[in-house]
Each structure stands twice: as C-alpha cells, then as structure tokens.
Amino acid sequence: MFASLLVTVALALFGGVGAAPQKRAPAQVYRKCTVANTVALTFDDGPHAWLYDISDALSAAGAQGTFFFNGNNFGCIYDDVNVQRIKYAYDNGHQVASHTWSHKDLATLSSAQIHDEMERVELALQRICGVQPAFMRPPLGNYNDLVLEVSGARGQDVAIWDFDSGDSLGASAQESINRYDEVASQHPSSILALNHETIASTSEQVVPYAIQRLQQAGYRLVTLAECLGQQPYQWVGEPQTRDSNWTC
Ligand SMILES: [Zn+2]
C-alpha cells in the first residue's frame, strides 16, 4: 500500500509520461533575463553537428548555455547521433528546452496542432534525458494568444531574446562578433542571446569570441533558467531505454 501511495504521489507531482496536460494560465513570455549580470547564450534548431564544440567551449570557460531542440528539422531527434548530442548537452549541465517538433510557424496552427508540435518534443526529451522542459521557444519567435494558452496548459513559458547574433539572418561571423562587441560595450544589466547551433561559423568563431568578450565584461554565462531565477524543468526523472517507439 505504501508503494502504491508513492506511485500516486509521484504521479500527482510529476504528471507521469503522457499524462494529460493540466490547465494553467497562459504562458509568460520572457524577452530578457531578470538576474543582473547574467548572459544566457541560447542555441536553436539542433541537435546538430556543432553541439559538441559549443558545449565544450562553454564548459572550458566554466559557462553554461541553453539548447532549444527541434524534433525533426535538420534531422530526426531519435537518430542515434542526435540522441548522443542531446545527452552530451544535458550531461554537461547545459539546459535543454523545446523549439517544437518541425519548426512550423505556431501562429498559423490550430490548438491541436500546437499541442502536437510541443508534445512530441517533450516526449523525446523525457525519453532521452528524463526531463520535462519548462521553456519553449516558438520557431521564428512567432506566437499568438493561442500559442500562449497551449504553452501555458503544457506548463511551459515562452522564451524570446533581446539580442540576436544574426547568424540565421545571413550575418557573417565577423558581423556577429561585432554585434557581441557592441552589446558588451553597451553593457546592459543582462543579455538573452539568440544563436543557432546549425551554423559552423557560430561554433568555430562566434561562440569562442563571445564567451571571452562577455566574461571579460564581467558577466556570468548561465542557463536561461538561471538568468530568470527559474527552474529549467517541470520535473526530472530517469532517461528511458530506446525502444521501437523512438521514431520520427
Ligand atoms: Zn529556429
């Protein structure tokens, strides 16, 4: 009976895998960090090949970053190489979060479609890392009231940014570096920075430079959750073992 009580409590606390989302208020939208003197370097559109270099550059500097993963954008999240990349980011203390399944513009979708785009990534992160993410970044930064309603119902807040390296908009590595120079010189209280882990020059040139420049400017490079004084996950459990359901 005690064991079944424990299960009941665990289910009540953690919702359980695949449990119906609880009704909540619409998601909050965060455009800025709230903790002074922090920078959150965030990386969208992976898992991708440059994740290891970005993770290692952060770790070597005593820094942490945040990866907003897609389920099926550049590749399937369940491909073994991608599972290994996600585990690597998580195991090295970086935050993992949802960029939704297939990088659709959520503002054009129905409630059921938005739920589906979100749920499939959540399930993947539950399976691969054993976590339920607390943050979602809508593709292209696009959202409407329905997106906030669905996201809130799924227990996730929406993370935008207040600094764009420009790497997905065609900025060269030097242009992105110049943007980091500029913002470091302006020295705002905090920086929530958008980057893409799918771009080689971001990994090879921009990230190493940005880490050094921002640390020299006196910032702490932390996860998105830490720069907001929030928890990164709705719950943390154990990773699962691959089975035949791990498919895109
Ligand atoms: Zn994206």
Automatic annotation (TrEMBL):
One of its GO terms (biological process) is carbohydrate metabolic process. It is found in: Cell membrane. Its cofactor is Co(2+). Residues 37-222 form the NodB homology domain. The keyword Nuclease does not apply. InterPro entries: Glyco_hydro/deAcase_b/a-brl, NODB_dom. Keywords: Carbohydrate metabolism, Cell membrane, Cell wall biogenesis/degradation, Glycoprotein, GPI-anchor, Hydrolase, Lipoprotein, Membrane, Metal-binding, Signal. One of its GO terms (molecular function) is metal ion binding. It is a lipid-anchor; GPI-anchor. Residues 1-19 form the signal peptide. The keyword Cell cycle does not apply. SUPFAM superfamilies: Glycoside hydrolase/deacetylase. Its main location: membrane. CDD domains: CE4_ClCDA_like. One of its GO terms (cellular component) is side of membrane. This is Carbohydrate esterase 4 protein. It comes from Pleurotus ostreatus.
